[in-house]
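Model the whole thing, not chain by chain.
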Amino acid sequence: MSASSSTNNTRMLELRGGLGAIPGVRLAGVHAGIKARKRDLALVAFDSPQVCASVITTNEIKAAPLLVTGRHLSESGDAMRAIVINSGCANACTGERGERDAQATARQAAALLEIDPNQVVIASTGVIGVLMPMDRVQRGLERCEGQLEAGGKSAHDAAEAIMTTDRVPKLSAYSFYDGTTKYVVGGIAKGSGMIAPNMATMLAFVATDAPMTRAALQAALSECCDESFNMISVDGDMSTNDACYAFAPVGKGSAPEGFAAALRRVCLDLAQAMVKDGEGATKTLTMHVTGAATVVQARAAARAVINSNLVKTAVYGEDPNWGRVIAAAGSVKAGLDPEKWSLYVNDKLWVDVGAIEVLSEAEGHAEMEHSSIVLRLDLGIGDASATGWGCDLSKDYVRINASYRT
Amino acid sequence: MSASSSTNNTRMLELRGGLGAIPGVRLAGVHAGIKARKRDLALVAFDSPQVCASVITTNEIKAAPLLVTGRHLSESGDAMRAIVINSGCANACTGERGERDAQATARQAAALLEIDPNQVVIASTGVIGVLMPMDRVQRGLERCEGQLEAGGKSAHDAAEAIMTTDRVPKLSAYSFYDGTTKYVVGGIAKGSGMIAPNMATMLAFVATDAPMTRAALQAALSECCDESFNMISVDGDMSTNDACYAFAPVGKGSAPEGFAAALRRVCLDLAQAMVKDGEGATKTLTMHVTGAATVVQARAAARAVINSNLVKTAVYGEDPNWGRVIAAAGSVKAGLDPEKWSLYVNDKLWVDVGAIEVLSEAEGHAEMEHSSIVLRLDLGIGDASATGWGCDLSKDYVRINASYRT
């Protein structure tokens, strides 16, 4: 957690309730019938207009709600009031009809909340290429509006409603103190498959009660995403629907001291919860890369390792096959010098520079038996570092994804 | 096979015996004891000096035999006489000792064949970070030398000796006729896991009896690799040991007419054999991308699809989840225009431009039941095309790779 520790006097404290911990935020999550049985529609309402920042998928195919939300943010990005999120249908590759459906959803939510449709963020997750069942969405929104409530219970319902193959809802919140005022940052997220560096199938919504400008919020969010959501991988796939949206009350200045650290902590919590909940995952893998020439190279090496099917199957099989780690890191022009690297497992030196093995096969195997494997690859070249988070690749991953829609 | 068909009068005919079909090539494959029971050491001897071309891994960590062979090719690339290949030990991440071992292996083979050590190509495949059992290699080489023989039987033994998790040896050979003379091109290869675009864990050795310059051979090999070995994927991992070496009798001019087509056919055969033998594979996937603006973009899209774990698990589960194909192709800046693409499965239109589904779920599922799935994504933008070959991701892939070394 080196990246997220707070070393000054901003006193960060963990809270329950995710988005529900933030004053002025009301939520609901219901079963609208988009999916067979589970909650599938969430509504988040802000009591006052919010500045909104976003980081979205770089996929050339972007789902309709992403396109529609992009236009809304151009119009009203300084005065957003609500979020509608559904699971069960990605509304991606659905053409003009899909965009009309996303617009209609925003209009319906806006009518219920008596706000402008441009003030609504829309997000979807689920199967690609299926049209939204708009009658069910409309009725579900009405039920959501009737159930809107502040607090952890409704945030939990909302976090549950945005799940796809997730096993657990994902919430995180922290309070921080900037010297004069106590603020809160909180969020909810979904994601457990199709997770890759660069915003794969994941949705995250974070908010705070600390006022700031939209530019200040965007700067903080972009930096946090690079260190959290963009450094996790479950299967290396990048989705058409990924997005992280952040909200803050409209303010005139920069973010208060302590905000960036609290936001980073919330994003890291949510990102790590996704990896821990990775489809079929039985173990998590934390990959620190240190001693790199640049952060870009350190990140590239960390991502290559957490994305490698061979590393992931070795972790699953508890096989101390360190060669696969080095081969993966070497494949991405990370500046790996064959004569300078060393590899650590769970803080023990595993392989020393120059390929002299320090831990025996049995010792290496014993380290791999942990349910949380922490590797550190020191490139021995410079001072830059990065961390990536991943999970193993199990037979269950294959089972889950071979029959996702059935 | 559009890329490999011969449309002129060079009359390409398939032969048995792979490398063994080429006059002047003798081979042997023995059990040297590097692995527990199976053949693990191959020797190939050329009766006359050969020009040698190569395409090797772009991994920053290169195995010792690659480095040593690189120096030999600088010295004697116009007059190579032998190849030594072992499985069971990659001789990668083995430092100076590994290089000395590779040099010693070349010296021992050279002494047995009464040639210069610089005339020997060395290649290894197997576990990373383990030292070569040099006494066994020496004794194995002696046995190989005693068994050197022309023809298909010895080529089969050699192809078997270079296997790791491969289930079948991989050989291919064709004769072609340039109008006056009949020539032969043939090869052997190994690879079934850690296969990715850009020369992942694979070794291929091809040769011909058609004389040409080293430059002519290199040009033909580089082009063929881009269309064959660099367009297959089993698991997206890139190895430290991958190499393809090509040999031809020393000549003064360019390659005879028909050579490029025959070489391409041999490389495609070997590449497709790797995919078909992919670890745990139950189905193969051929991904044609047409209508792209550039070949680079077409290749990027084809590779993204065959590399996608979500596409591969859908193929395994016979799930007609075309959204995953589009999401994968969209993730790599292939110039995918959301309003122009269309997708075909086994020559049937699956999804039309603008996301109107043509095949029903049941019809799509029926197509996915084939053991060889052929997809074509038409980008509808330009005239460039490319093809990639992959396989499904099964529970068996996980089983094999979770316990590779045990």
